């Protein structure tokens, strides 16, 4: 199906109002894009964070009379003579194929590969995790996931138990199992994450060694040799007592989802319980690891 979009240069004060109006007049989707490429991280709960200069991009069916859309926007006061906007035809493509073509097998560390199911495995002798992008976070493409995968690959996991706190797609727990861990436990607050982790573990033949719990249902006495948590700095600090208790004495902890600027405050939340390693940094994101005292 063909589409047409209108891109309106707006501000953080006006973007939400324009978005609501575009949906009222028939837009099938509206997205916000920072017109100056300035990322904002970690909005507060229930908060929509926008940028100082925000492009509002609305998608319409290609048959839509876009001049009428422009007239409606002007009549409603959302477009003035000074407002920059652009109407663009969107090429009709096989978007599913386009999307699939963007995902390739990726290597992490010396042994581990994450491979989409529709591509051939590059090395049959490697540790191959078959994982397709889906409903839950975690495919290996984000620097924080990559940092955690490389850390797991560097460990001797043979016979060890691993907890993946905030398991998302299950990528870290499944990778740990394929790297030799005896068993793994995935914990998340999102039922979709539990479902995705279960499906992905079945696809990789490790479901019999993976337990999955919603956070509210997790046993109180859980502990593991290795605990990895790839979430965000705020929750990592808030949940430091809970996460720390999951690690056995002399066990290993890996934390990510942390901006480089947030590393110090996260380290401070864990330094009493763990002997911390130097912080690993990639593309302004970082990983914190350590051993339980």
From TrEMBL:
Name of the molecule in the record: Ribosomal protein L11 methyltransferase
Function: Methylates ribosomal protein L11.
Reaction catalysis annotation: L-lysyl-[protein] + 3 S-adenosyl-L-methionine = N(6),N(6),N(6)-trimethyl-L-lysyl-[protein] + 3 S-adenosyl-L-homocysteine + 3 H(+)
Top EC class, one word: transferase
Residues bound to S-adenosyl-L-methionine: 145, 166, 188, 230
Enzyme Commission number, as recorded: 2.1.1.-
Key words of the record: Cytoplasm, Methyltransferase, Ribonucleoprotein, Ribosomal protein, S-adenosyl-L-methionine, Transferase
Protein source organism: Avibacterium volantium (Pasteurella volantium)
InterPro entries: Ribosomal_L11_MeTrfase_PrmA, Ribosomal_PrmA_MeTrfase, SAM-dependent_MTases_sf
